[in-house]
Amino acid sequence: MRTRTYRAKAFLRAAGRLGLDVTVATEREQPLARLARGTTVALDFADVGRARQQIREFAVEHPIDAVLGVDDDTTVLAAQVASALGLPHNPIEAVKAARYKDVMRLALSEAEGVLSPAFWLLALKEDPRPFAERAPYPVVLKPLSLAASRGVIRADDVTGFEQAFREIASILAASDLDPDDPAARTVLVEEFIPGGEVALEGLLVDGALTTLALFDKPDPLDGPYFEETIYVTPSRLGSVTQREVHDTTQRAVLALGLRTGPVHAELRLNERGAWIVEVAARSIGGLCSGTLRFGEGTSLEEIILCQAAGLELSSLQREQRPAGVMMIPIPAAGVLREIGGLEQARAVPGITEITISIPCGERVEPLPRASRYLGFIFAHGDTAQEVEHALRRAHERLTFDIA
Q1: Complete DSSP assignment for 237-300
Q2: Does the predicted TM-score (pTM) go above 0.85?
Q3: 118-191: CATH homologous superfamily?
Q4: What is the pLDDT of residues 170-209, one digit of tens each?
Q5: What is the DSSP letter of 100?
Q6: Separation in Å, CA 373 to CA 58, 149, 264, 320, 399
């Protein structure tokens, strides 16, 4: 995992509950690494060959039983490192297909029974005007590998297309992508697919998909930016539609070649059926897994770690009580000075927790440049409608002083 990940605490807490010895591999050496030998290792995330050698040398003294990539930008390296150690892993090419949107689109376009939008690739060095003049509007422009809707922009005409293209070029120039990575030099253009959106959280065992949770996204995601806000589970969709979402995702992961571990999929639903927006070989991002409990209180991370370590999986049945999370959007660019109304928001019936993830004093940016959320609001209720209502009421009570 990268040092900036949201996911560290949840995975380390889960490992502690399971009694697992964990080594955290990050992109730079941790300050206290020498005081707790074997608990961390620094790998060169930009050089696969060197990272493989580093992990082989580390494993001589500290044997490793399983490797897990926590976020989008570590899933491929995790598969490569597992391969170097002779450990079980998804095929590297399959993880790359899930990681890079252009490779995923190509694989899905050739898959039977999978609805996937038409797509085109443009190099940043190209003049976007010729394509913009013949594009089948509306279209969506996006980077190949950035996460959390960063740089994803809808365009409805030539002017909007050129503006989006320049904006993505600027975002990529400011990213930490290797300049030699094709993802740093290419823009993906996709046909815009109308419809409501859902998120599926699943687990693959020998290629068979189990749906752990299906989240509704009640806020419309029509652009120009595609800000994730509210997730609520269980879904209010009918059983036939939920089965279609599961079956489409199953066909998609098989088309990509994924066989094991967590899957996070985004789909759009309209009169033509369920369309794959993306499939990722990792679990849900941010702190959103806090909405999920299984069996007798097992976390999503415990299930993932049990599978990776070859331990017996407990119940995969999600608790029945509806739950939801709101990723607090950043309303403006500037320096975050204060967040007001937290006590009033926490007092809203149904709200179980509010976590602020960006400290005051730091600079923040909204989409399409945002790479972080201000925080997360969690709620439970007797119905999905109650959960959604509580999240909206809590958010309405928050104020943001951004200078």
Answers
A1: S-HHHHHHHHHHHHHHHHHHT--SEEEEEEEEEETTEEEEEEEESS---TTGGGG--BTTTB-H
A2: yes
A3: ATP-grasp fold, A domain (3.30.1490.20)
A4: 999 998 888 888 899 999 999 999 999 999 999 999 999 9
A5: S
A6: 35, 11, 19, 28, 15
